[in-house]
Design goal:
Oligomer: single chain
Order of helices and strands: EEEHH
Number of helices: 2
Shape: globular
Strand order of the largest sheet: 1-2-3
Structural class: alpha+beta
Number of strands: 3
Length: 60
């Protein structure tokens, strides 16, 4: 369960297609049917908030 450096997100975890994201302000949210490649790209992204808005939010 990697902790990340982000002003909005504290932790990101992926298991069997479920992407769990812990937000500093609102806690944990789970996103379903997320490909593992999206998770790895998320971890590698320079801005976790921008990646979340562009590739996860309103998609999964």
């Amino acid at each position: 369960m990697p902790f990340v450096s982000s002003s909005a997100i504290s932790r990101i975890e992926w298991s069997n297609g479920i992407l769990s994201i812990w937000f500093h302000e609102s806690g944990r949210y789970d996103y379903y049917s997320v490909p593992e490649g999206v998770y790895h790209a998320f971890l590698a992204s320079g801005s976790k908030g921008t990646f979340f808005n562009d590739y996860i939010r309103d998609i999964y």
